[in-house]
Description:
Blueprint: H1 3-11, E1 16-20, H2 21-24, E2 25-29, E3 45-48, E4 53-54, E5 59-60, E6 66-68, E7 85-88, E8 100-102, E9 110-111, E10 115-120, H3 126-133, H4 136-146, H5 156-161, E11 163-167, H6 172-218, E12 227-230, H7 231-234, E13 235-239, E14 253-256, E15 263-265, E16 270-278, E17 287-297, E18 301-306, H8 312-330, H9 341-345, E19 348-351, H10 354-372, H11 377-396
Helix pairs in contact: 6-10, 6-11
Amino acid sequence: MSGVEFLDKLLDGVEVEWKPLGMVAEYVRGLVYNKSSESSDGHGYKVLRANNITLASNQLNFDDIKVVNFDTKVKNTQRLHKNDILISAASGSREHVGKVAFIDADIDFYFGGFMGVVRCGNGLNSRYMFHVLTSDIFQKYLDEMLNSSTINNLNSTVMGEFKIPIPCPDNPKKSLEIQAEIVRILDAFTELTTELTTELTTELTTRKKQYNHYRDQLLSFEDGEVEWKTLGEVAKIGTGSHDTQDAVDDGAYVFYARGREPLRLNNFDFDETAIITAGDGAGVGKVFHYAQGKYALHQRAYRIVPSEVMEPRFVYHCMASHFYAYIQKASVSSSVTSLRRPMFLDFPIPVPPIAEQARIVTILDKFDALTHSLTEGLPREIELRKKQYEYYRDLLLSFPRLEGEMA
Length: 407
């Protein structure tokens, strides 16, 4: 039975009314405080913020908790209670607005001013509301609202006007039964997805450790076993000419900037095989990209083009394994924020015979594909599990609307 058929059977012909959130729930904004209110000794009110909601899983994390002094003015409504739905209400980035987490137990925490809490009335199941707020229904509404030039956060008006599908609104008992059945199914699917994702993540962690072990082992050579040269002796090193603002969404060529995610551009700078690394920013010393063919390059990203005595993928694995540590050690500063071409030149590279380089590359590429590729191996499995849940969630929440009714 499909999700749509199941929903039809569950509703059994009953009416569904889309009610504004302000009619069925309360929306409360969080505790506002300034830097001077933060506790210096760890004693005070513990405050959760947007970074305490993990975007991928809608779960709370307690990695970085703010504590404000006990003399800070707080309200009981700004303390988190069981069955609250915590939501990020404002942020510098759109992707972090609307992050949602469910509070499934009483916890001794307040929530910050850039956060909000949804508290449901008697006729609304809190877990049902949580699933609605994590669904595509809410995300589409947010996209529409936050693309407005006058709205940049989830204020009480934006949240209050969001419409919630309420089955059987004239029969609260029947309505809650229907909501509870949808929650039962989605919670069971969430639990299964979480278990599978946990298993796959554990497997992925193991594979990464194996990959790192074999990579380090295969790229370690005894004195006199192979010839060693510097990167400047076996590769050409240079930069690009573009800035991030040059990128276009549907560009014909890949544009490597300084981050992990490549951009697009309508013209290319190079047609070659090269290793790409950032020249400054958070990615300094880390190797994110292996370029093949035509590509464009940021003016503060570096291209390393191996000579004919080197297998390019071998150089890639050597740099991915050791370059970051080399840069950190070679720098006179405790924190490297920018690279210059001379810093590359003395990086040591082992030069075994080409056939041996190719053998090592074959082994390491298999591990690399399993652990890092988004289209192969375990990361893809994890992503598929999440998409399955999202698919069935959105199906089970695809209630009919009256003609002309808007979300």
